[in-house]
Each structure stands twice: as C-alpha cells, then as structure tokens.
C-alpha cells in the first residue's frame, strides 16, 4: 500500500508505544488492582493498589491510606513496584532514543546507520517495558486467584478480586510490545527501501553475459 511508508510505520510505533506508556503509568498509581466487598456489609468497598488502599462508603466517600511499611507488603506487591518502575523508565527511554532516529527529524542527518541503530534500541527498550508491565500484573492476578480459591478461609470471609487496573495493565503492556515490534518493522522497511537497484534485464546485458560465459569456457 502506498500510504504504508517507513515514515508512517515509525510514527505508528511511537504513537502505540506512547499510548502503552501512558496506560502503564496510570495503572501504576491506580488503587484498583484488587477490589473486595462483603455480602454482610454491602455499603463498604475496599480497593488495593501498589501504593495505597482505599475504602469507599456511601456516607464518607473514598478514603485512601498509603502503606505504612514497604517491607511489610506482600512479596507480589514489592516485586510489582520494582517492575512497574522499570517499565516506566524503559518506556520513556525508548521514546527518547527513538526520536532522533525518526525520518523528518533534523537530527543525525547523513547517518543512516546511527538512525537504524537508535530505532533498534528503541524497539528493544519498548519490549522490555512491555514485558515488565505484563509480568507484575500477571503475578498479582495469579496470587489473587490462589487466595480467592484458598479453602483455608471461611466462606463468609470476603476475598480480593480483580480490579480495573489489572486489565489496563495488560492492555498497556501489550501495546508496548506491539510498539516495539513496529519499530523493528520500520527498520526492515527502511532496509528494503535502501537496497541497491536490481540489474535491468535488457538484451545488451544478456549478450554480455553470454559472451562472458563463452570466454570462460574457452
């Protein structure tokens, strides 16, 4: 297709990566990783995130409180904090690295190999950012399922369930991985555009080749 050029693919990669990074940033600070409500007290809803827990009541509204101790957190939340911080750092670095390598940007002019290398590094960083977003969300999802079906808890005891931030985290991580893939596709398209032109299949060229072959045989 005519509109699917190398420049357009680069812009698409930046757009998708930026969208995934923003989604991961929102997911990191949303207190909606897990939710809990009780059948015995339906007016209270609990929400849990990486940095604080919140309680919603009809009389007061939402009240949030930060965790008092980092070492007192469950291991899955501690790991998720570190991985989400790595994800945000690598995602932002991917966009910064990719910017000088984009076509139409007056940076690194006359250095196609440097531009190509920057886009490859941006793709790798975007992949790392996406994987370090998918990993903590999946870890928390796994521990939530294990705790939910734990037979050691009484049936009347409320249990944590998936929150909205879990799904936004999966979406953001997947977008970052797709954005990194688009960077690699843009590099391949650029290599294809810069390939040397093929030799024309003209009668003069055929005669020269035949004469060359005859000379080699003699």
Summed up, what is this model?
The chain contains five helices and five strands; from the N terminus they run αββββααβαα. The protein has 218 residues and is an alpha+beta fold. A hairpin with a 6-residue loop joins strand 1 (34-37) and strand 2.
Characterize the structure shown.
It is a single chain. This protein has 218 residues and is an alpha+beta fold. It is 60% helix and 11% strand. The protein has five helices and five strands, in the order H-E-E-E-E-H-H-E-H-H. It has helices at residues 6-29, 75-98, 112-148, 164-193, 203-217; strands at residues 34-37, 44-48, 52-57, 61-66, 161-162. The protein has a five-stranded antiparallel beta sheet. A hairpin with a 6-residue loop joins strand 1 (34-37) and strand 2 (44-48). Helix 1 runs parallel beside helix 3 and helix 1 (6-29) packs antiparallel against helix 4 (164-193). It is elongated and about 75 Å long. The two termini are 49 Å apart. The relative contact order is 0.19. The model is unreliable at 211-218 (pLDDT under 50).
Summary tags:
5 helices; five-stranded antiparallel sheet; elongated; 218 residues; single chain
How would the blueprint of this fold be written?
Blueprint: H1 6-29, E1 34-37, E2 44-48, E3 52-57, E4 61-66, H2 75-98, H3 112-148, E5 161-162, H4 164-193, H5 203-217
Antiparallel strand pairs: 1-2, 1-5, 2-3, 3-4
Strand content: 5-15%
Mean pLDDT: 81
The helix-and-strand class reads alpha+beta
Report the strand count.
5
Report the helical percentage: 55-70%
**Side-by-side strand order of the widest sheet:** 4-3-2-1-5
The radius of gyration is: 27 Å
Termini separation: 49 Å
């Amino acid at each position: 297709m005519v509109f699917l050029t190398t420049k357009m693919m680069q812009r698409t990669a930046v757009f998708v990566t930026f969208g995934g990074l923003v989604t991961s940033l929102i997911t990191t600070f949303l207190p909606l990783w897990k939710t809990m409500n009780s059948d015995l007290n339906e007016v209270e809803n609990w929400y849990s995130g990486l940095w604080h827990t919140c309680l919603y009541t009809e009389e007061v509204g939402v009240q949030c409180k930060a965790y008092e101790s980092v070492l007192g957190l469950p291991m899955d939340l501690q790991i998720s904090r570190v991985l989400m911080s790595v994800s945000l750092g690598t995602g932002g670095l991917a966009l910064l690295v990719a910017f000088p390598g984009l076509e139409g940007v007056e940076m690194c002019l006359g250095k196609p190999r440097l531009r190509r290398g920057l886009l490859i590094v941006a793709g790798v960083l975007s992949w790392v950012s996406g994987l370090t977003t998918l990993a903590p969300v999946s870890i928390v999802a796994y521990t939530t399922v294990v705790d939910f079906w734990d037979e050691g808890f009484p049936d009347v005891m409320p249990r944590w369930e998936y929150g909205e931030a879990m799904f936004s985290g999966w979406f953001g991580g997947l977008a970052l991985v797709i954005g990194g893939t688009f960077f690699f596709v843009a590099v391949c398209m650029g290599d294809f555009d810069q390939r040397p032109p093929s030799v024309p299949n003209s009668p003069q060229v055929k005669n020269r080749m035949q004469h060359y072959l005859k000379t080699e045989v003699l």
